[in-house]
Specification:
Bound molecules: zinc ion
Largest sheet: 6 strands, mixed
Helix content: 10-25%
Number of strands: 17
Strand content: 25-35%
Structural class: alpha+beta
Distance between the termini: 16 Å
CATH topology: Fumarylacetoacetate hydrolase, domain 2
Number of helices: 5
Order of helices and strands: EEEHEEEEEHEEHHEEEEHEEE
Shape: globular
Strand order of the largest sheet: 4-3-15-8-9-12
CATH class: Alpha Beta
Length: 229
């Protein structure tokens, strides 16, 4: 578990420390990823929530739960909300972002598929402990354009996902504005902005490295849950 999200400003000003709030996640925000799972491209952002208890830092281990045989990696740009807001305009949206990091939206694809068929929610498929690895944050001011970043995910040194945030269907500012029509955004909330194509299953022993231009990389290992502790 991760108790805090920290943004370091070096010598310029003291670190800002946030308690993680809600994890707002966007599904199908890259057309090629929607297509690879046989889904239509949405006409408005598709939002789901993940519990903060799923967060783990870089260097930790993703646990494949006993209930799943098919856990996928989804590499995503993550925004840390720094300022409270409701019904935020797109023009004002970026002023609510305190920092950016690389995140993984780990997904039990087999459980998600069954949920889709039954019309059940995705909370189980997306919400297991360790299913939200999160790298270190940089201040938002150090990212000139969040829609001009290269996104990469390697498994054991082999590239599986390679995309570009310019391919997002709904850009970050639009996502923040949209989410704020539903939720009051609070400092410490996290926005997972969706994944490009190339999602695939992980296996015990795998080493994942997630990278986005100018952000600290995120590295996790994978193991299988062997018993109910
Ligand atoms: Zn995702």
């Amino acid at each position: 578990m991760m108790e805090e999200c920290r943004i370091s400003y070096g010598d310029k000003r003291p670190d800002r420390v946030f308690t993680p709030g809600k994890l707002m996640c966007i599904g199908r925000n890259y057309a090629a990823h929607a297509a690879e799972l046989g889904n239509a491209v949405p006409t408005s952002p598709m939002v789901f929530l993940k519990p903060a208890s799923a967060l783990i830092p870089s260097g930790a281990t993703v646990i494949i739960p006993i209930a799943s045989e098919d856990v996928h990696h989804e590499v995503e740009l993550v925004c840390l909300i720094g300022k409270r807001g409701k019904n935020i305009s797109e023009e004002d949206a970026m002023s609510h972002v305190a920092g950016f990091a690389v995140g993984l939206d780990m997904t039990a694809r087999d459980i998600q598929q069954k949920a889709k068929e039954k019309g059940h929610p995705w909370s189980v498929a997306k919400g297991y402990d360790t299913f939200a690895p999160l790298g270190a944050f940089v201040p938002s001011a150090s990212v000139a354009d969040p829609q001009a970043l290269e996104v990469t995910l390697e498994v054991n040194g082999e590239v599986r996902q390679h995309g570009h945030t310019s391919d997002m269907i709904f850009p970050v500012a639009r996502l923040i504005a949209y989410c704020s029509t539903i939720f009051t955004l609070m400092p410490g909330d996290l926005l997972f902005t969706g994944t490009p194509e190339g999602v695939s299953a992980v296996t015990p022993g795998d080493s994942l490295q997630a990278r986005i231009t100018d952000l600290p990389s995120l590295e996790v290992r994978v193991s299988k849950q062997i018993s109910i502790a």
